[in-house]
TrEMBL record:
Peptidase C39-like domain: residues covered: 164-295
Domain of life: Bacteria
Cited Gene3D superfamilies: Cysteine proteinases
Name of the protein in its database record: Peptidase_C39 like family
Length: 348
């Protein structure tokens, strides 16, 4: 494996690469993966009418044959017309669709997507991408990007608590905070949401929660001019100091949402929690990461801004193989994608 990918590769599928495979469906080309990947995560941004629903499927080429297609999602802005949910029970000898992650028993060298819509008006695909990860990868750590130390982005604070059912709303609350950040920057009121609104828009009844990674970014990316997707940074499970790429995004003025184990973040020896999402807003002068943590009670004097030891954060973040949501205007200047871990843009 080439070290330039460092365990993860992010592959965009351009709209013009999709070919019609039926009256209401498209298929992507066979996507050659430059690494052997045992996990695949799909992201999509689309403008969809209220009475249209889409189904996204994915298959992988493992060793010498293609798997069957797995349904990554049924997605619709209005579940009263068409379903918005993942699909349970998708497990066979090749792998399993685990809500938002296709987990393969044998690593894949290629992948392919199939997209279908129901309704009168076809969707307008604005962004489609695949994050492929080799969870067994191991490379030397990168040096810190100390230019980001001492910098913090001013991200509006929101709590997941105080709402009925809100104890599990860390993901939509984090998504709401980042959208509010861009609402202020861009003077766009359409990006401002109360937490329950985002929670309702990303709720996955199959998973019975709001933590579906791809659903959160699909909701954010449905806003005009906003790009949003799930990816992973350098996936080096056994190393505990590599936050270089996260620091680059802070310098670019983009607050990433990170998926962590809350137990490990708090210094516990083992992770027994279901995971937690927070917004990284910057770093202290000594390099410890600073977050807007949605799990706080302002009425008890607790604050959204929290600092955690760098080593604790790395252990906690490694638990998700360094998963992030990246949400930003499509014309915003972003870091160069040196290791192919995120999208490119006109200003990339």
């Amino acid at each position: 494996m080439s070290p330039e990918y460092r365990g993860t590769v992010f592959v965009e599928v351009e709209r013009q690469q999709l070919t019609l495979s039926g009256p209401n469906s498209w298929v992507s080309p066979q996507i050659q993966l430059p690494i052997l990947a045992d996990q695949l995560i799909l992201s999509w941004n689309a403008i969809i009418s209220q009475q249209t629903g889409i189904t996204l499927e994915i298959r992988a080429f493992c060793h010498d044959r293609w798997t069957s297609y797995y349904t990554a999602a049924h997605w619709s802005p209005s579940p009263q017309y068409f379903p918005r949910q993942s699909v349970a029970g998708q497990q066979d000898n090749d792998g399993m669709m685990d809500t938002d992650i296709l987990r393969l028993h044998k690593p894949a060298s290629k992948a392919q997507l199939r997209l279908t819509y129901r309704g009168v008006i076809p969707p307008q695909w604005t962004f489609l991408a695949l994050c492929a990860t080799d969870t067994q990868a191991s490379f030397d750590e990168l040096p810190p990007c100390a230019k980001a130390w001492g910098r913090e982005l001013v991200v509006p604070e929101k709590t997941q608590l105080g709402w009925e059912g809100g104890t599990g709303w860390c993901s939509p609350t984090s998504t709401a905070m980042v959208l509010a950040y861009w609402a202020k920057k861009l003077h766009r009121s359409d990006l401002t949401y109360d937490v329950p609104e985002v929670a309702a828009a990303v709720y996955d009844p199959t998973w019975n929660g709001t933590g579906n990674w791809s659903f959160n970014t699909a909701f954010a990316g449905a806003h005009a001019g906003i790009r949003a997707y799930v990816t992973r940074f350098s996936d080096i499970y056994e190393l505990e100091h590599d936050i270089y790429e996260l620091e680059q995004w802070i310098l670019a003025g983009v607050p990433p949402i990170v998926s962590v184990s809350y137990d490990l973040l708090k210094g516990k020896a083992e992770a027994h929690d279901a995971g937690h999402l927070m917004v990284c807003i910057g770093f202290t002068k000594t390099g410890d990461p600073v977050f807007n943590d949605p799990y706080y009670r302002p009425e008890h004097g607790e604050t959204c801004r929290r600092v955690f030891p760098r080593i604790n954060f790395l252990r906690a973040w490694n638990h998700s193989h360094k998963t992030v949501y990246l949400i930003y205007p499509s014309d915003h200047s972003i870091p160069q994608t040196t290791y192919h871990h995120w999208a490119c843009s006109a200003k990339c």
